[in-house]
């Protein structure tokens, strides 16, 4: 890596859970009231039918500071969107406390999976278009070039668990490529989901440092 200190900037981070319950445990009306009581700005909705009718809901539910609450009752998902992964995780913790205190529902109970999606831009002082091809499989790229009758190289690097299909619950994907707006920066996209809270917490704790290590390997 160059002498310039790497500069990592988060574009967006999403963190949340998908519950395994057959029926979503939160009533939409009660959920909105609990959020409003605790300082969240509610998203506008059309007139709601009277109880006891259950209401399916999907989309942005509320906002607080720089975070957004997104939920899908049919999929059993509740997600916090923030400006950093740390902010999204902390805000989800705050949301879980509100739901537990106000509604008596533990969002960590009967979790099918924890999930996160985060996008970074990274500057290292080097050019991603020149650095990423260092990880090429030269034999395969040569064959691809012969087929396309062009001098080719890899534009991106994708990493995932060996032999694991992307439709499995415990899975991750890390994509490293040049940023499409600024060729001097890397874009790094991370998708992670796991059924175990402890493994998810460890992945999050180590993620940004591990990403810097991956870039250092590429640029060595």
Written overview of the protein:
With 220 residues, the chain is an alpha+beta fold. It has 5 helices and 9 strands; from the N terminus they run E-H-E-E-E-E-H-E-H-H-E-E-E-H. A hairpin with a 4-residue loop joins strand 4 (67-72) and strand 5. The relative contact order is 0.18.
Q: What is shown here, in short?
A:
The protein is an alpha+beta fold and 220 residues long.
What keywords describe this structure?
2 domains; elongated; 30% strand; 220 residues; nine-stranded antiparallel sheet; 30% helix; 5 helices; alpha+beta
Write the layout of secondary structure elements.
Layout: E1 7-19, H1 28-37, E2 41-42, E3 58-64, E4 67-72, E5 77-82, H2 85-103, E6 111-123, H3 128-131, H4 138-148, E7 157-159, E8 171-178, E9 186-194, H5 197-219
Helix pairs in contact: 1-2
Number of strands: 9
Distance between the termini: 6 Å
Count of folded domains: 2
Helix proportion: 25-40%
CA-based gyration radius? 21 Å
- Main beta-sheet annotation: 9 strands, antiparallel
């Amino acid at each position: 890596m160059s002498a310039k200190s790497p500069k990592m900037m988060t574009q967006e981070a999403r963190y949340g859970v998908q519950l395994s319950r057959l029926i979503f445990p939160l009533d939409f009306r009660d959920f909105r009231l609990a959020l409003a009581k605790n300082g969240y700005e509610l998203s506008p909705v059309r007139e709601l039918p009277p109880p006891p009718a259950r209401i399916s809901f999907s989309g942005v539910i509320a906002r607080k500071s720089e975070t957004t609450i997104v939920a899908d009752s049919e999929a059993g998902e509740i997600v916090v969107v923030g400006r950093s992964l740390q902010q999204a995780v902390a805000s989800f913790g705050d949301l879980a406390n509100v739901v537990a205190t106000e509604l008596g529902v533990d969002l960590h109970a009967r979790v099918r999976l924890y999930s996160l999606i985060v996008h970074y831009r990274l500057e290292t002082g080097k050019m991603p278009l020149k650095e990423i091809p260092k990880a090429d499989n030269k034999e395969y790229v040569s064959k691809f070039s012969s087929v396309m009758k062009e001098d080719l190289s890899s534009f991106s690097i994708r990493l995932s668990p060996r032999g694991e299909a992307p439709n499995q619950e415990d899975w991750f994907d890390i994509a490293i490529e040049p940023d499409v707006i600024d060729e001097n920066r890397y874009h790094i996209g991370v998708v992670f989901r796991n059924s175990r809270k402890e493994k998810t917490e460890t992945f999050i704790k180590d993620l940004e440092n591990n990403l810097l290590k991956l870039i250092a390997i590429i640029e060595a």
